[in-house]
Amino acid sequence: MIYDKKAFTIDEHIEQLRKRGLSITDENIAKHYLKNVSYYRLAGYWWSMQNDKENHFFKENSRFEDVISLYNFDRELRILLFDVIEKIEISLRTKLIYQLSHEYDSWWFQNITIFKDSGALIGTLASIKEEVDRSKDIFIKEHKKKYKDDLRFPPAWKTLELTSFGSLSKLYGNLKNNVKSKDIIAQELGVANHTYLPSWLQSITQIRNYCAHHSRLWNKNLPGTPKLLSKPPFRWVDDVPKDTSKLYMHLCIMRYLVNVIAPENSFSIKLQELLIKYPSVDPNALGIKPNWVCGIKVLINNL
Asked: Rounded to an integer, what distance in angstroms lies between the CA atom of residue 170 and that of residue 56?
């Protein structure tokens, strides 16, 4: 089959949505959003409102206002999670630099003998080199100027300040299991040992990328399977979620980590407030099921 559909105008999109059963009471608001948010970005939020996915017909009482509520909820959720992930990323970076630099030396991240997969390390170092080479940070400029004859990377406390969360998580996960710092870092983050933390960091990295690229999180099936602690050292949740493809499991993991890193955080409160602000949002699309604990409010408080 050859794709032969032409581009629609905004007016044509509105007419098509109405014919398919989506209620649009304020056409000016619909035009405003379609001018500033693409049709196919919004389509991710009305997809679940359709009872005929092939012909794109909507369920009865489907409203454009509810699509916008979902869109705005998802946008605010990404902003909230980005703030939480920042705390986790900075803590991981700090611990990697401190622990490994003292266990080995200032260039431990280039020490191929302490990593499991040398090929993966080479790939990670290539990404780190790109980050260092394009850096305009004054501390990198000064280092290159002062130590121009030293062709190595700047030491870990300079280089890894520029490194992405993805590269940091890859460095940690690739460390050999007999590296003492690997367990120390996991323990300092409340994760018992190195067995669990790599899968947690991979999960958070993926969500961080969704947030950075403004991708939809609501009702998304997430990749990866984080390993769950059988006996968490710190407070977990009353009823452990089983579905790792839904966001809720990953919210639990981020909340657990940020509770250790920044005990004074208000993540649970802000998440609860966000759900209250958008009552039309179905928590089940995030994996939050009322039967796990007695009600969503209690469930969130138990995070």
From this structure: 41
Q: Three-state DSSP class for 224?
A: coil
User: How many helical (H) and strand (E) elements, i.e. helices and strands, does the chain have?
Assistant: 13, 2
36 contact partners, CB below 8 Å, separation of at least 6:
none
Question: Per-residue pLDDT tens for 137-188?
Answer: 999 999 999 998 898 999 999 999 999 999 999 999 999 999 999 999 999 9
Q: What share of the chain is helix, strand, coil (3-state, %, to 5)?
A: 60, 5, 40
C-alpha angle 253-254-258 in degrees, rounded to nearest 5: 120
294: Cβ–Cβ under 8 A, 6 or more apart, which residues?
none
Whole-model pTM: value is 0.90
Q: Shortest CA distance to 34 belongs to which of 20, 52, 15, 47?
A: 15
* Nearest CA-CA partner of 194 in 206, 210, 178: 178
Token pair listed for 267: 């993540």
Residue 186: name the closest of 195, 176, 174 by CA. 195
pLDDT for the residue numbered 54: 87
Helix orientation angle between 27-36 and 10-19, rounded to the nearest 10 degrees:
120
Q: In whole angstroms, what is the distance from residue 91 CA to residue 61 CA?
A: 47
User: Quick one: which of 227, 219, 248, 238 has its CA closest to 292?
Assistant: 238
> In this structure, are residues 74 and 257 in contact, taking their beta carbons and an 8 Å threshold?
no
Encoding tokens for residue 51? 């009872």
Which residues lie closer than 8 Å to 77 by C-beta, 6 or more apart?
217, 218, 274
Cα–Cα distance, 238 to 240 (Å, whole number): 6
- End-to-end CA gap in the chain: 49
* CA–CA gap between residue 108 and residue 218 (Å, rounded): 39
Chain centroid to CA 56: how far? 30
Closest CA to 213 of 78, 100, 117: 78
Structure tokens at 177: 């299991």
